[in-house]
Amino acid sequence: MTAVTLTVNGTERSLEAEPRTLLVHALRDDLGLTGTNVGCDSSSCGACTVLVDGQSAKSCTMFAVQADGADITTIEGVADADGTLHPMQQAFHEHHALQCGYCTPGMVMAAISLVEEYPGLDENGVRHGLEGNLCRCTGYQNIVDAVLAAAGSGGD
Amino acid sequence: MIPAAFDYEVAESADHAVSLLAEHGDDAKLLAGGHSLIPMMRYRLATPGVLVDVGRLDDLRYIRTGNGTVSIGALTRHSELEHSAALAEACPMLASVAALVGDPAVRHRGTLGGTIAHADPASDLPAAVLALGGTIVAQGPGGSREIAATDFFTGYFESVLADDEMITEVRVPAGTGGWNYQKFNRRAQDWAIVGAAVADGGAGVSLVNMGSTPIRASGVESALAGGASAAEAAALAADGLEPPEDLNADAEYRSHLARVLTERALNAAGVA
Amino acid sequence: MTITEDAPAGHVGSRRLRKEDPALLTGEAKFIDDLALPGAIWVGVVRSSEAHANIVGIDGSAALEIDGVNEVLSGEDLAPLWGEGALPCAWPVTPDMKNPTHLPVARSTAKYVGDAVAVVLADSRYAAADGAAAVVVDYEPLPAVVEIEDAVADGAPLVHADLDSNECYTWGLWGDNAPAIDAAFAEAAHVVSERYLQQRLIPAPMEPRGCAAVPSPAGGELTLYSATQIPHILKVMTAVVLGIGENKLRVVAPSVGGGFGCKLNVYAEEILCSALAMQRGAPVRWTEGRAEAAVSTIQGRGQVQHIELAADADGKVQAVRVKLLADMGAYLQLVTPGVPLLGGFLYHGCYDIPNYMFECTSVFTNRTPTDAYRGAGRPEATYAVERAMDALAVSVGVSPEEIRARNFIGADAFPYESSAGLVFDSGDYQAVLDKAVALAGLDERRAEQAQRLTDGSSKRIGIGLSSYVEMCGLAPSRVLASLDYGAGGWEAATVRISPTCKVQVVTGSTPHGQGHETCWSQIVADKLGVDPDDVEVLHSDTAISPTGLDTYGSRSLAVGGTAVYMATEKVIDKARAIAAHQLEASEDDLEFSGGVFRVRGTPEAEVPLAGIAFAAFTAHDLPDGMEPNLEAHVTYDPPNFTFPNGTHIAVVEVDTDTGDVDLVDYVAVDDCGVQINPLIVEGQVHGGILQGAAQALYEDAVYNSDGQLVSANLGDYLVPSAAEAPRYRLDSHATPSPTNPMGVKGVGEAGTIAAAPAVINAVVDALRDLGVTDVDMPASPQTVWRAIADAQGGAS
């Protein structure tokens, strides 16, 4: 077992993990942050997307030990403490950009990172920017519209 | 799926990484971004006994230009190539190809050295470095050596890199001469079914996923040098190759795509 | 029948944002793998690597060396857990249907890659994976049957050695009109005869399956948590299979991450975890991996279709004759054999075709069982008839929209009795098509198409139409009985009004993304004159919602929503009686709107619902003999199916140099009856379209000749992303269904049913002048390129 210290949603958290422990399982099973989901085993679906040092990363394709010392943001950490949704979450709500909601945490985290990384996104940019996040319910149109709206309103 | 257990070592420097590799022999693998290795480990197609994490070697994350060369630290991430103003000016082709790798989350983690070392014939950046006539700098117990990209790749996921060597830098000639990369796939996030890279106005042409390694299309290059048109040269793109067969393409279709994409890439690079 | 009569607040029909969203957007919602179960035994399933093999030996010694791996159990070891029980099939479609015993874990012979052959019990998720990987199974390979047509070939190996063939059943629908059909074909001016392939599909909801069985050893009770669409059905079936008293069993579906039919089942792991939990007195859990899901969860489609149309000189179709071969896979799951029948009534599409013949032969193969996948039989039927109608249009020499216009069931023909024996509720198919044609700008698109051809462009435009009608609202129980289905088709609802006038709705429907909580709240809020936020909707737990038949087949709104509507009316009736008592008026003189009862003509004589709710709670002054509290329960059995319909138009650009198909425009005009929430309707249509288009262009469960699934992960099985999806342009044309009081029909499967034929018709349209008349699904670049090359007389 290896000691791993992460700053998760602004709070320092320590755990003992086997080196092979995937970051997503450390978050879910060790830290109880089950908002981040696992949807595949081939880095294809993006359901497990979190922010690592501010950038989107697939937490199923990282070992927790690789993230030792890193700053991690999960879906549990983006809304305000008073429950006010992050502008990206709010945009997803207002555009009916989720149905079953399983891909949603990863999709929201990917979208937050995307609009930060690529200012001035157009529709094509959003579609390609989310190419690594699969959704089986929505057909994506409302997701794309939500991200464009959040980007336009300064959603970060 | 869950990777098999392994021992984990953090490299403090390139020298340290190399010494750890030497210590553990062929049971050890380097771990950089992990975006090629970890999926294979999850399917237990790779079960290394030791992983040497070089991901913290921030001194190997750089893009330096000068003297007609772009030198890129091996741990430089795809997204850093994609967004580098220096690279966009000195070698826009590499920045552009980097932006086509995987998806943004993959580009945030994947590294140039890692993708070269992985030697996947379906990857974009190895073929781009090959077309650009790049050089791979590898460090081993006895010091560093420079390997021409044309000599680097030897087979499916195989290269001349020794078990105790680590890529520290990738160099490509600076240049903005006519270039283009045509990546053909069914989903944007996927590897190329076939890709065609053209550098320096057709002086360097390479193909993705047309054999067991990234392949320099020397027949196309020499035809162009001999005065052939883009169409004539592109018609030779698949000659002598034995492309792989998979769910997306058989050899005949891959060969056809290689010709079509090579012609498109040449035309887009300004080669008539 | 209009909805506005009782709807002064107007929540029904509004684009109300979903109350389900906040929990899902913040990670607060709990899916099956999120449940914290300290001390749980983790199950790892060892799955057959062979398509067909005798299990000679199972060696768990290496697995047992692994830290955290506690037991390795073979099918033989586990057999006492289920005794005579086996995984259930609830739809014996014919008296002589073959239904081989389907054990949760095979004892002697593995019948498909993915068939469970042993089980590892471990302390953790990781140890379970390690253990399953370390078990060594000794197989004696047997000949395998992989492809559908090979299963019925002479001398085919038998999937089940104790049966005399691979045929599961043959089911037909032709009554006594075979001579009329023969005559129609003999006299036809145009005959279309086509063979289409429905490739197998992997449903791939983003959440794989999972379950956890939690015993209460002292009380002797068991709670089964499962990522299922059908907690109520699962409860009955688990009780029957394992011989548990239903009174000792509770089934809970937590948040479920999509289903699309593949979670409409009773699976080996659910039975296994339940049986082990009771035996061990400890929680037992299992979470499916994605590559595991590809072989261990049911697949969809898998048919070879032969369709023939006989038409007169004007292209008016006089007869349709269909023969199917349907792939059951190695075993029958819950409704496997019934899926082809759900399409079997609809091979005349939305056309008035007087003579109808359908015959389906279903076969066993050494592959993962098939079962219901979004649309279940109806996408297959629609694909065949809509492709064939395009072929007929070419034969007659008219446009696709004209051939459809000449054959549509007329708007004045409803209720329409079809030649297949159904009574269609309502529709105006021509108006729907006209709207779609206008929205698509068909004339401009055709001009652009012609211009590209004139220019000799390698990027051709293709335009494809698909008009569909489906049967939803499964279903009238008596009709299901006539089809030998093992259960009814009713749905239950309870509506309660609390002392403070908050509303509790208990529904037997089981949402997994559809937005029931929001829609049911809208229905109830309008009727009661309360705020939708004051309505809570409870579901998916048999302890809270003990009666129900769950969610599939676009039945929730038409059946479950109607039950909610009727239960609300029943509550109002009771409230009305109390109001009349309080106001000393006749019930007949009371009107109820905006949550207030008033005496007609005496506006000052009024009492709000809140007052009645409190009065019903205190029960101090109720009419003689009336029970306290405001509560009503309704079980609604629909008198008929509902028949949503629509026309979709796909526009593609085909790169003839590479075979690449780009979906550049997609127009959908649907008639799903009255819409409770158009925002949700549109979401259902969007997602449905992409699943149908994905069958047309991307998805394929590819098996090699050894029976190995070679597209088992999401890198190889191409679920499309936002980058591949088109922008959808939607409109609607509602003809309220007379079948239910709200006039609703259902919309969950419409997009999927319509999209595949629209897209493939468009691809063929783009290439027709090159001689291409058919392109198999999925129309991958290689498939399209080869179709062009073949039509042109050889590869380039």
Explained architecture:
The complex is a heterotrimer of chains A (156), B (272) and C (796). Chain A has 156 residues and is of the alpha+beta class. In chain A, 31% of the residues lie in helices and 16% in strands. In chain A, β3 and β4 form a beta hairpin. The radius of gyration of chain B is 18 Å and the shape is globular. The mean pLDDT of chain B is 97. In chain B, α5 runs antiparallel to α8. Chain B has 272 residues and is an alpha+beta fold. Chain B starts with 6 loop residues before the first strand and ends with a helix. Chain C has a seven-stranded mixed beta sheet, sandwiched between helices. Chain C has 21 helices and 28 strands. The model of chain C is unreliable at 1-9 (pLDDT under 50). Chain C is α+β, with helices and mostly antiparallel strands. In chain C, β19 and β20 form a beta hairpin. Chains in contact: A-B, A-C, B-C. At the B-C interface, α12 of B face α4 and α21 of C.
Discrete helix count of chain B = 12
What is the averaged pLDDT score of chain C?
A: 96
Strand order of the largest sheet of chain B: 4-5-10-6-7
Question: How many runs of DSSP E, i.e. beta strands of chain B?
Answer: 14
**Strand and helix order of chain B:** EHEHEEEHHHHHHEEHEEEEEEEHHH
Question: Based on the structure, what is the oligomeric state of the protein chains?
Answer: heterotrimer
Based on Cα principal axes, name the global outline of chain B.
Answer: globular
Overall radius of gyration of chain C: 28 Å
Helicity range of chain B: 25-40%
Principal-axes geometry of chain C comes out as globular
Distinct helical segment count of chain C: 21
Characterize the biggest β-sheet of chain C: 7 strands, mixed
Beta-sheet strand percentage of chain C?
Answer: 15-25%
The helix-and-strand class of chain C reads: alpha+beta
Q: SS-based structural class of chain B?
A: alpha+beta
Largest sheet of chain B: 5 strands, antiparallel
Low-confidence stretches of chain B: none
